[in-house]
Amino acid sequence: MTLRRSLALAGTYAVLLLAAACTLAPFAFSVLTALTSARQFAQQGPLSLPDPATFENFWSLLSSRDGFLTPVVVTVQMVLVILAGQMVLSVLAAYAFAFLRFPGRDLLFWVYVATLMVPQVVVVVPLYLMLSEAGLRNTFWALVLPFVLGSPYAIFLLRESFRSLPSELMDAMRIDGAGTRRLLWNLVVPLNRPVLVTLLLITIVTHWNSFMWPLVITSGPAWRTITVATSALQSQYNSNWTLVMAGTTLAMLPLVVLMVAFQRQITSSIGQAQMR
């Protein structure tokens, strides 16, 4: 039994290592190609290791006349505005749906959450027409307005997390004279910090990687996001894959840093959800 269990465990780890290698291989290939000079890439092929490693592709991309730095700045601004709006408004809406009583509360909540079932491509045309009629096409507000007022997924996640809090804690604070604002910011938010951090990361990743909406609602380089700029590199530098991979690496680097920095909070939120 011990030998059989050891073989099963070894097989499990072998499968997991293979899956990890298949997942990480494209990212490793992107980084290695970005660190390879264009001459070495042309002479030795895409699978050769950088010899020596160079950051020339990154400097060339960031200092190019077309400018890859502008899309980075635009994307950071867009993500920060959407993040601030979604986190604040989603917390307030989730608290209202979880604890406040008003007519039609549950019906309104489930109708709102049901919009998660609607594919994004279905609402792209109506949103485009609405913002175009309002004169906001190819502006910064066109990038953020459809998403800044909250997210059905965020509200659903936070509502379920808020409702799992022990009612005794809420009652004790109410007896002490705590009002809605104090209950929310002094009790509910601190006890749900891991879930909030996870939601923060999900929001950043989702809108950092957003491609379809920025591609449709903007034109030209003024409000181009990093995903659209990276896609444009493939046609602009179709014979220089080292520059294309440098752009891809720059696009994914901030997300990798965030996930590494907040991995403990993500693990804590998963454990907290399992305990509840």
From TrEMBL:
Record keywords: Cell membrane, Membrane, Transmembrane, Transmembrane helix, Transport
InterPro entries associated with the record: MetI-like, MetI-like_sf
This protein's name: Carbohydrate ABC transporter permease
Mode of membrane association: Multi-pass membrane protein
Superkingdom of source: Bacteria
Family that this chain belongs to: Belongs to the binding-protein-dependent transport system permease family.
Locations listed in the record: Cell membrane
PROSITE patterns: ABC_TM1 (PS50928), PROKAR_LIPOPROTEIN (PS51257)
Source species of the chain: Brachybacterium hainanense
Gene3D superfamilies: MetI-like (1.10.3720.10)
Transmembrane spans: 68-100, 107-128, 140-162, 183-205, 241-262
